[in-house]
Design goal:
heterodimer, A: 211 residues, alpha/beta, Rossmann fold, six-stranded mixed β-sheet, three-stranded antiparallel β-sheet, B: 305 residues, mainly alpha, 11 helices
C-alpha cells in the first residue's frame, strides 16, 4: 500500500508540490498525467525513496524512511540507465539469481530471443555496445532488471516516451505481463497508455485531480 | 600526401635552400672529420705538417659554424613558411566548408584545430631536424663506405640488429600502453556510468557491483601501468647499453685492422667521429616513420586551397 499524507517538496527553493495526499491500495493501478515539468516525475522519485519530502509523511509498503522505502519498490525510468557491464550484470545488478529464474525473466521481458542471438549471449559486454542497442532493447533490459528485484510496488516513469510505436507496444506488453497483481503508479503524458488503470490523476500546480 | 605536395610546391625555394644548407653543413662536418684523420696519419707517419694544411680544418670549422647557423635559420624559416601556407590555406576554405557542411565557421575551425596544431608543431620542431639528421646519416654512410667498406659493414650490421630490438620493444610497449589506456577508459566509463545511473544503481542495490567493477578496472589499470613502467625502464636501459655495442665492435675491429696494417689510425678516428651520425640515423628510423605517419595523417584531414 502507498500512502502520502500532506506531502510537500521543495527543490532549489521552488515548491514542487504542497500538502499532497494520495492513498493507493495493494494491487491498484494508478496513472498520473500532466504537462512536462509539472512535478510528476519528482513525485515518483520521492515515492521511490530517492528524495526526502520537505514535510508530511509517506508510507510505502509499511516503511516511511527513504533508505527502507527504496528496497520496497522497482522503478522503470524514461532512460534505462545501462551500466558498462555485461547484460547479466545489468539485469541482476550483482545479486544471486538462479539460471531458471533468469531464463523466465528474459522470456517475460521479450528479450530472450535477441540475447540468444548474440555471440556471447547474456555475458555480452554492454560498455561499447550500449549505443548500438535500440531503445526498445535497452528498455526491456531495464524491465528485466525490475523483474529481478520483483517488488510488490512498481513505479513507471514514462517508460515508452523515447520509443517508436512498435517498440513501445512491445515494452508495454512486457510491462502488462509483469504488473499483474502489483501496485503500479504510472507517470506519463500519454493517457492512452493508461487503459485499464483503476484511477487516473491529472497533476497541475502541484496538486492531483482525479479524472 | 596531396596537402604535403602543395606545401612543398608553394615553398620550393625555401625548402631547396634548407636542404642545400643542410647538405653543406653536413659535408663540412664530414671533411672536418676527414682532416682530423689525415692530421693523425701525418703525425703517425711523422710527415711534415704545413700551416696551409692546418688552415683547412680551421676554415672547415668556421664554414661549419656558419652553415650550421644558416641551416637552423633557413630550416626554421622554411618550416614557418610551410605552417603559414597550411594555416592560411585552411582559413581560405573555412567559409566554403562551413556552408557546405552546414556548420559554423568556429565549428569548422575546431574540426581541424588539433590536426593543424600538431602539423604546425611537427613542421616547426621536427621536420627539418629529421631532414638534417637523415642527410647526415646518408652522407656519413656513403663517406665511410669510400673510406673502408668492411669497417662500414662492421658498423652497420650490429646497428641493424639493435634496430630490430628497438622496433620489437617499442611495439611491445605500445601494446601495453594501449591496454593501460583501454583499462583507464573502462574505469572512467564505469565511474561516469555510476554517476549518471545513480538512481537506478541505488534502487536496484547495485552499489556493491559498481564498486567491485570500478576496483577491478582500477587494479587492471594499475597492473598495466606498473608493467609499463617496469618494462620501459628495462627496455630503455638495455637500449642504452646496446647502443654502445656498435662503437665497441667498431673500436675492437678497427684497432685490430690498424694493428694488422689494413687501415691507418686516421681512418679509424674518422669512423669513431662519424659512427654516431650513422647509428643514430638508423636507430631513429622507426621514430621518424611513426612521426611522419602521424604528420601525413593529420595533413590528410586538412584541406587547403
Amino acid at each position: 500500500m502507498i500512502e502520502l499524507k500532506n506531502l510537500s517538496f521543495t527543490y532549489e527553493n521552488k515548491e514542487v508540490f504542497k500538502n499532497l495526499s494520495l492513498k493507493v491500495k495493494k494491487g491498484e493501478k494508478v496513472g498520473i498525467i500532466g504537462e512536462s515539468g509539472c512535478g510528476k516525475s519528482t513525485l515518483l522519485r520521492l515515492m521511490a525513496g530517492l528524495y526526502e519530502p520537505s514535510s508530511g509523511e509517506m508510507i510505502i509498503d509499511g516503511e516511511n524512511i527513504p533508505e527502507k522505502i527504496i528496497r520496497k519498490v522497482s522503478v522503470i525510468m524514461q532512460s534505462p540507465m545501462l551500466l558498462p557491464m555485461s547484460i547479466r550484470e545489468n539485469i541482476t545488478m550483482g545479486h544471486e539469481v538462479s539460471e531458471d529464474k533468469l531464463k523466465k525473466i528474459l522470456e517475460d521481458a521479450n528479450i530472450k530471443k535477441w540475447i540468444d542471438s548474440l555471440p556471447e549471449g547474456i555475458e555480452t559486454y554492454l560498455g561499447d555496445r550500449a549505443d548500438e542497442l535500440s531503445g526498445g532493447q535497452a528498455q526491456r533490459i531495464a524491465i528485466a532488471r525490475a523483474m529481478c528485484k520483483d517488488t510488490e510496488i512498481l513505479l513507471l516513469d514514462e517508460p515508452t516516451s523515447a520509443l517508436d510505436g512498435e517498440n513501445a507496444a512491445s515494452v508495454l506488453e512486457a510491462l502488462d505481463r509483469f504488473s499483474i497483481g502489483k501496485t503500479v503508479i504510472h507517470v506519463t503524458h500519454r493517457k492512452e497508455h493508461l487503459n485499464g488503470y483503476d484511477r487516473i490523476f491529472n497533476m497541475k500546480d502541484g496538486c492531483l485531480f482525479l479524472q | 600526401m596531396k596537402v604535403l605536395k602543395i606545401l612543398i610546391k608553394r615553398n620550393k625555394f625555401w625548402i631547396a635552400l634548407a636542404v642545400f644548407t643542410a647538405l653543406i653543413s653536413n659535408l663540412s662536418q664530414m671533411f672536418f672529420a676527414y682532416f682530423i684523420g689525415e692530421l693523425v696519419n701525418k703525425i703517425e707517419t711523422r710527415d711534415t705538417i704545413t700551416f696551409s694544411f692546418l688552415a683547412v680544418p680551421v676554415i672547415l670549422i668556421l664554414s661549419n659554424a656558419f652553415t650550421q647557423f644558416f641551416n637552423q635559420f633557413i630550416g626554421r624559416l622554411s618550416a614557418e613558411k610551410m605552417a603559414h601556407t597550411l594555416r592560411v590555406g585552411y582559413a581560405k576554405i573555412l567559409l566554403m566548408r562551413s556552408s557546405k557542411e552546414n556548420c559554423s565557421v568556429a565549428a569548422a575551425m575546431s574540426v581541424a584545430q588539433n590536426e593543424l596544431a600538431q602539423a604546425n608543431s611537427y613542421l616547426g620542431n621536427t621536420f627539418f631536424d629529421i631532414t638534417g639528421m637523415a642527410f647526415m646519416g646518408i652522407i656519413a654512410t656513403v663517406f665511410l663506405l669510400f673510406q673502408n667498406v668492411l669497417l662500414t659493414v662492421i658498423l652497420i650490421v650490429p646497428t641493424l640488429l639493435i634496430l630490430i630490438y628497438v622496433v620489437y620493444s617499442s611495439r611491445k610497449l605500445s601494446g601495453i600502453v594501449t591496454a593501460a589506456q583501454e583499462e583507464k577508459a573502462h574505469m572512467n566509463k564505469t565511474a561516469y556510468a555510476m554517476i549518471h545511473a545513480f538512481p537506478s544503481v541505488k534502487i536496484f542495490g547495485g552499489e556493491e557491483l559498481c564498486k567491485e567493477t570500478y576496483n577491478k578496472r582500477l587494479q587492471g589499470w594499475k597492473k598495466h601501468f606498473v608493467k609499463l613502467g617496469r618494462l620501459s625502464s628495462l627496455y630503455n636501459t638495455l637500449s642504452g647499453i646496446l647502443s654502445r655495442v656498435p662503437l665497441l665492435i667498431l673500436f675492437l675491429a678497427g684497432s685490430f685492422m690498424v694493428i694488422r696494417g689494413d687501415i691507418l689510425i686516421g681512418t679509424l678516428i674518422v669512423f669513431l667521429i662519424l659512427q654516431k651520425s650513422l647509428t643514430m640515423a638508423i636507430m631513429n628510423l622507426p621514430n621518424w616513420f611513426a612521426n611522419f605517419k602521424v604528420f601525413t595523417t593529420n595533413l590528410s584531414r586538412i584541406d587547403i586551397e
